[in-house]
Amino acid sequence: MAKKEEVVETGLYSASVSAARAASLADLIISFSEREKPKRTMPRATAEARLKATVNGKTASQFLVAWDGDKALGFMLFTVCAGLAGEWAYLNDAHIPKGPRDAAVAKALLAALLDWAKARGLERVGTSVEPKGDAMALCDEFGFTRDESVWREKFL
Q1: pTM of the predicted model, to two decimals?
Q2: Pick from 71, 107, 130, 143: CA 20 to 30 A from residue 156's CA?
Q3: Are 21 and 81 in contact, with CB atoms under 8 Å apart?
Q4: What's the CA gap between 2 and 8, in Å, rounded?
C-alpha cells in the first residue's frame, strides 16, 4: 500500500495572521536563532520586529510558513532579488524542527516557494546548503542544480 502524502498548510506571513500564529512563529524564529547562535538568544521583541518588518515592507524578505492550526511547524525566509538576468528568489533561511512531520513540512514549504516564484514570473530560486544532509537531498529531489560557487560573507 502506498504511503499517503501528508497535507501541510502553507502561506506567506501577513498582517492578517492571528495573534496565536504570530506568537508561534516568533517562538520558532527564536529557536532558529538559538540553533544558529547558541549563546545569543534572540529577545522576543527582536523576533516580533523582524516579522513586522516583512509585513510593512521595511524588508524585501518574506516568511513562508507551514501551519498546523495555530502552531508554526517550520518556515522559509526568502528574498526577491533583481539581477541582469531577471528577478529571482533567494532562500535565505529555513527552519523545520526535527520531528515526525519534518520531511513533509520541508517538502510542502519548498513546493509552495517554487509555486509562488513561478506564479510571479521569477526566473529561478536559489539557495546555498551544506554539502551533505537533508537540505541537499531535498534540493536534489526538487531538481536544483549544483554549481561550484562558494558562499562568502563578512560580518559588519
Answers
A1: 0.84
A2: 130
A3: no
A4: 18
CB under 8 Å to 117, separation ≥6 — which residues?
A: 88, 89, 124, 125
Residues 6+ apart with CB under 8 A from 18: 70
CA angle 92, 63, 75 (to 5 degrees): 80
| Gap between the Cα atoms of 132 and 22, Å rounded | 32
Q: Output the tens digit of pLDDT for each of the chain's 156 residues.
A: 444 456 679 988 988 889 999 999 999 999 888 877 766 778 889 989 888 888 887 888 899 999 999 999 999 999 999 988 889 999 999 999 888 889 999 999 999 999 999 999 999 999 988 877 888 889 999 999 988 777 777 878
Round to whole Å and give the CA distance between 152 and 26.
28
Start-to-end C-alpha separation, the chain: 54
Q: Say if residue 82 is exposed, middle or buried (CB neighbours under 10 Å; 0-12, 13-18, 19+).
A: exposed
Distance CA 10, CA 110 (A): 10
Could you give the C-alpha distances from 37 to 29, 32, 34, 108, 123, in angstroms and in order?
12, 9, 5, 27, 33
